[in-house]
Amino acid sequence: MVDEKIDPKRHYTATEVASLLDVSVDTVRRWYRLGYIKAALFGEKNLYFVGKNLLEAMDKFTSSKKLRKLKRGTTVDKGDKS
Fold first, then answer.
1. I need a labelling partner for 42 at 20 to 30 A (CA). Which of 16, 49, 53, 56 fits?
2. pTM exceeds 0.85
3. Mind listing the pLDDT tens digit for each residue in 54-64?
4. Which CATH number fits domain 2-66: 1.10.1660, 3.40.1000, 2.60.40, 1.10.1420?
């Protein structure tokens, strides 16, 4: 399971998050821009994702329907319970 690979205390780059979640780096960045995943910005372009925030985001989007929508690039209502 993916969440077993994520250390809640570690900081991950967008590339590492993409590899862990089996999505593209562009998808990770889009999820950040849409507010699905929290990140810290260091410098002008360096995004770092805390493992704890990744796990929290994954908990919110556990249904396969939501994950399929996210992977396709469509938006998902953060309050949607489906």
1. 56
2. no
3. 888 887 776 55
4. 1.10.1660
